[in-house]
Amino acid sequence: MSHTNQISVGKKSHITKATTTSKSLRTTIPEDVVKEMHLEIGDILDWDVIQTEKGKKHAKVRKLE
Questions:
Q1: How many domains does the chain have?
Q2: In a domain, 4, yes or no
Q3: Residue 28 belongs to what domain range?
Q4: For 14-64, how does the pLDDT look when each residue is reduced to its tens digit (9 = 90+)?
Q5: What pLDDT score does 50 carry?
C-alpha cells in the first residue's frame, strides 16, 4: 500500500440515521475537509474500508473526478 501525507487531523462528526426505514447512516463532512477536498453539492464520494496488518479498520474516502 502506498503511503501518503496526512493533511488534516482531529475532525469529528456525529452519525445519525439516514431515514427511519433505512439501515444507512448519515454524517456531516467537516468544513475544513470540504475546503481541503474542494467538495461541492452533487460530488460523488467513493468509500473503501481498509484493514491494517494489526486488524484496525479505517475508511478511505475519495472524491470521484
A1: 1
A2: no
A3: 15-63
A4: 999 999 999 999 999 999 999 999 999 999 999 999 999 999 999 999 999
A5: 96
Q: What is the DSSP code string of 13-39?
A: --EEES-SS-S-EEEPPPHHHHHHHT-
2 lies in some domain: no
Nearest to 45 by CA among 32, 24, 29, 58: 29
Q: What is the largest CA-CA distance in the chain?
A: 39
34, amino acid identity: V
Cα gap 50→60, rounded to integer Å:
7
Is 7 within a domain?
no
Asked, for residue 26, whether it belongs to a domain, the answer is: yes
